[in-house]
Amino acid sequence: MSQPDVIVVGGGLGGLGAAFSLTRQGLRVRLLERAPAFGEVGAGIQLAPNCTRILDDYGLLDEAVRLGVVPDSMVMRDAVDGSELTRLDLRDLEKRYGYPYLVIHRSDLHGLLLRACERVGVELITDAPVTSYENTGGGARVTLSTGETHEAGVVIAADGLHSLARELLVDDEPVSSAYVAYRGTVPAELPRVRSTDLGEVVVYVGPSCHFVHYGLRGGELLNQVAVFESPKALAGQEDWGTPDELDAAFARTCDFVRDGLPYMWRDKWWRMFDREPAMTWVHDRIALLGDSAHPPLQYIAQGAIMAIEDGWVLGEHIARNRAADGTVDWDPALTAYQAVRPEHCRRVVTTSRKWGELWHLDGVPREQRNTLLRARDTYDYSFTDWLYGPTALTPDQEPEMFTPIPLSSAS
Ligand SMILES: Cc1cc2nc3c(=O)[nH]c(=O)nc-3n(C[C@H](O)[C@H](O)[C@H](O)COP(=O)(O)OP(=O)(O)OC[C@H]3O[C@@H](n4cnc5c(N)ncnc54)[C@H](O)[C@@H]3O)c2cc1C
């Protein structure tokens, strides 16, 4: 095998997105995935306009829209009484940001990116667990569990939440939120789906729990996510997030939410972790990307989007630092990536935590939250402009954050 320009470690949505973006800039990219086959576990994923804009730039948006659903609205309801709190008109939102809000099955998005990588000629290698990373001066090297080594000008570590590269380069730990997610899909022919508006993305927010649903695959499936705080996790027990906790966590919620619980997959659940923001992602010729750099809690649905944005931003800076003979001046390209992405992702990771706290309130704070959300104008975009506009390539392009409204201002 001849030496590639770039090695990407990890074939999740982040690694595939980066491999495609860099190959599109004319680089030879080798992707190393530890699993025996490429794939994604889970059901739906939400893609806001800051991601569909990039898919469009990649020439992949039409296919993504064909595979997914472009919903009409996003509705937030109170999980206890079922009442509507606020909504986004997603067709109007598309006009504001120029690109649609899309929901898609994870395996369909993963398959789409994998096919795109195959088409442009990414060298895709499975069964390749990386066990060490090292800088070599003019480049970087990874070693596999077999002892085989691979070298390139740059190594991108897109190896997820439990990233080995993060451990070696940053040496911090994932932070447990004590929340756990259950996922599941309901086939369209069942009465539950026939009585549900598949044109809506709905989140029911409740005390220490929430429940999300939306349609997938042109309305063939209803995707459901049930998330709750685990009492066993809070008590320090090892076996937390088990199905008995699921049923108990939603006992106070409305009929529609409780009726959805039997459809959740009960043999698999996802404990929710993030990390404290890391502000240095580039370590000489090894760069973190995706969840290895910035795993968020999922409350503002931006984890995979940030990963896809990372790859796009890096690709754009490579284009700006590439000589006519094809060689890349890596130092300014990586410096430009490092200058803009960590601060954006820090904002998303910390806002995701706050958004989750707001969703899970009880008692008087829950009533104050509901009052404020009911008063919100559907067409007020002050809480989405910082996120859904064009992805910044330089720090000066990063939009202003929103101004938080204190709960105590609710009369
Ligand atoms: C319940 C839930 C809902 C979510 N909803 C949304 C949403 O609506 N929108 C959104 O944008 N995001 C969402 N997210 C977040 C999103 O799923 C993640 O942020 C995203 O998938 C991370 O992608 P990644 O490629 O960085 O990491 P991963 O998907 O974890 O991929 C890492 C890859 O690296 C491989 N790997 C790991 N170590 C090695 C190694 N040593 N050698 C070789 N390969 C290795 C792994 O096998 C894996 O394939 C959600 C997350 C959860 C849990």
Element layout with pairings:
Layout: E1 6-9, H1 13-24, E2 29-32, E3 44-47, H2 49-57, H3 61-67, E4 73-78, E5 84-89, H4 90-97, E6 102-105, H5 106-120, E7 123-125, E8 130-135, E9 140-144, E10 149-152, E11 154-157, H6 164-169, E12 175-187, H7 191-194, E13 200-206, E14 209-216, E15 221-229, H8 231-234, H9 243-249, H10 255-260, E16 270-274, E17 282-283, E18 286-288, H11 303-320, H12 330-359, H13 363-375, H14 385-388
Parallel strand pairs: 1-2, 1-11, 2-7, 4-13, 11-18
Antiparallel strand pairs: 3-6, 4-5, 8-9, 9-10, 12-15, 12-16, 13-14, 14-15, 17-18
Bound molecules: flavin-adenine dinucleotide.
Flavin-adenine dinucleotide is lined by residues 9-15, 32-35, 45-46, 128-130, 158-161, 164, 181, 225, 270, 290-291, 298, 301-305, 307.
